[in-house]
Design a protein that fits this description.
The protein is of the alpha/beta class and 180 residues long. It has helices at 2-16, 40-43, 61-76, 99-112, 126-129, 133-140, 149-153, 159-163, 166-179; strands at 26-29, 31-33, 46-48, 55-56, 58-60, 87-90, 97-98, 121-123. Strands 1-6 form a two-stranded parallel sheet. Strands 2-5 form a two-stranded parallel sheet. Strands 3-8 form a two-stranded parallel ribbon.
């Protein structure tokens, strides 16, 4: 995403230079699902940036962590690609869901639990999205479609993501969040 471009470019450049090169690896996780802070409670509804037609690859937090461990282990053993080739995308190739699809499921579930005042998913108001600027748009409004080719070369597979999809895991994750 554009939010990472400037810093990622500088890291790749440092790993590519002929004089005083630095060993560099960048690990880009896809949309990680798990329990986190939820702005929906404050709004009263689950929301999207605009219509929510955008989508990203997703990855279960356990698969993301396993991939990062594998890359770090390979780096210590001198087997990881580095510099310009050291870009690792931690993502599954499971079907991508639009933001609207999964936020609607989340909104309906939280409405049924009495947490939200409106069911479904609705575009977030300007007063919420405008302060987030381009960075917020790139995270919540843009698309991110990647392939985990370098991780696969190291023998990684998104086992947990294949076992439990984002939509299947949402109710359990939301229940844990509600307890906290």
């Amino acid at each position: 995403s554009i939010s990472h471009f400037l810093t990622s470019y500088q890291i790749v450049e440092a790993g590519s230079r002929k004089e005083n090169p630095v060993r560099t690896i960048i690990y880009f996780p896809a949309q990680i699902y798990g329990v986190g802070e939820d702005m929906s409670k404050k709004l009263g509804f689950a929301g999207t940036w605009g219509s929510g037609a955008n989508s990203m690859n997703n990855i279960h937090v356990k698969d993301c962590a396993n991939g990062l461990f594998l890359v770090l282990k390979a780096a210590l053993e001198g087997k990881a690609e580095e510099g310009p080739e050291g870009l690792y995308f931690s993502a599954s190739m499971e079907p991508r869901l639009s933001y609207y699809t999964w936020t609607k499921v989340m909104g309906d579930y939280l409405y049924e639990k009495g947490v939200l005042t409106q069911p479904g998913s609705h575009p977030m108001p300007n007063e919420v999205v405008d302060p987030l600027g381009e960075y917020g748009w790139s995270l919540l409004g843009g698309n991110q479609w990647v392939k985990p080719q370098r991780l696969a070369k190291l023998g990684w597979e998104p086992v947990e993501t294949k076992r439990v999809s984002l939509l299947e895991s949402l109710p359990g994750m939301l229940d844990v969040a509600l307890q906290g």
